[in-house]
Amino acid sequence: MSQATNWQIPIIGPMTPSTFAGRLRDNFNALLSEHSGSTEPSYKVVGTTWADTSVAGVITRKYWDGSAWRTLMTINTATGVISYAGPQTTDVTVAAPFVDFTLSPGFRSYRLTFSEVQGAVNNAQLALRVSENDGASYRSTSGDYLKQMNYNTTASGIATISASTETMPLITAPIDNSNALNGASGCLTIHPGSASKRFSVNLQSEAIINATNYLTIFNGSVKCLTNAARVNKIRLLMSSGNIATGKFTLESVP
Questions:
Q1: 59-83 confidence digits (pLDDT tens)
Q2: Are 47 and 34 spatial neighbours (Cβ–Cβ below 8 Å)?
Q3: Where are the domains of the chain?
Q4: Is 207 within 8 Å of 182 (Cβ atoms)?
Q5: pLDDT band at residue 161, thresholds of 50, 70 and 90?
Q6: For residues 250 and 156, which has the higher predicted lDDT (pLDDT)?
Q7: Which of 13, 143, 232, 243 has the most Cβ atoms closer than 10 angstroms to its Cβ?
Q8: Which CATH number fits domain 88-253: 1.20.1300, 3.10.20, 3.30.300, 2.60.120?
Q9: Could you tell me how far CA 152 lies from the centroid of its own chain?
Q10: Diameter of the chain by CA atoms?
């Protein structure tokens, strides 16, 4: 930690040269380290930046705007990976087996949107898996996730789904991959969980099943039943085959 006890240069004496030099040293050290510490600098003003070290192994760079600290970026001190607070976007134009996103620390929740997603295999479903170890492994065992959703189709009306699964389904119906159709689109709010709280997703999405039948999922909720720590990485994938097309954007919510 390097924050000044007294953030100011005295302009009225008396003060001994050694005390004055000590004040200067503390102020310069604080500037050099960007006021690093596990607690915020008490002398903050609009424009102050702070290297927050309250999370072990992570440095979170923040900016004080006069009313709140705004996260600019995070640095994983073990891997050197830098994650910026701005939106992360992946536009799939060439078939890919999955799309990964990092859930940077320092945020309470995240907003994920996806649009015009189609699978390389017809009638595959869009799903999600979670990792607590920066993507070294993802939870994929039967019973890891619980889905509870209400949905409406033009064919069957309102229905309810409740089941435990090995992936977290975002679209519970098969997605038609015809070029004439628009695939699946939707948005969800992600809560990363912790050692004592479950990772969860609140979901609203729409999928074109076929040329005349739309599926709208509303009041959808999915959670991970087995996460033992904060989830720091998510993976989007199809239930079968690759993701053929689609755009995915993740935004951090302070």
A1: 989 999 998 888 888 888 888 877 7
A2: no
A3: 17-84, 88-253
A4: no
A5: low
A6: 250
A7: 243
A8: 2.60.120
A9: 28
A10: 85
Residues 6+ apart with CB under 8 A from 73: 60, 61, 82, 83, 84, 85, 104
* CB-based contacts of 62-69 (< 8 A; 24+ apart in sequence): 62/106, 64/40, 68/254, 69/40
Q: What is the pLDDT of residue 209?
A: 56
**Which amino acid, 160?**
T
What does the pLDDT read at residue 182?
Answer: 76
The residue count for the chain: 254
CB-count exposure of residue 119 (10 Å: 0-12, 13-18, 19+):
buried
Please, what is the average pLDDT of the chain? Answer: 83
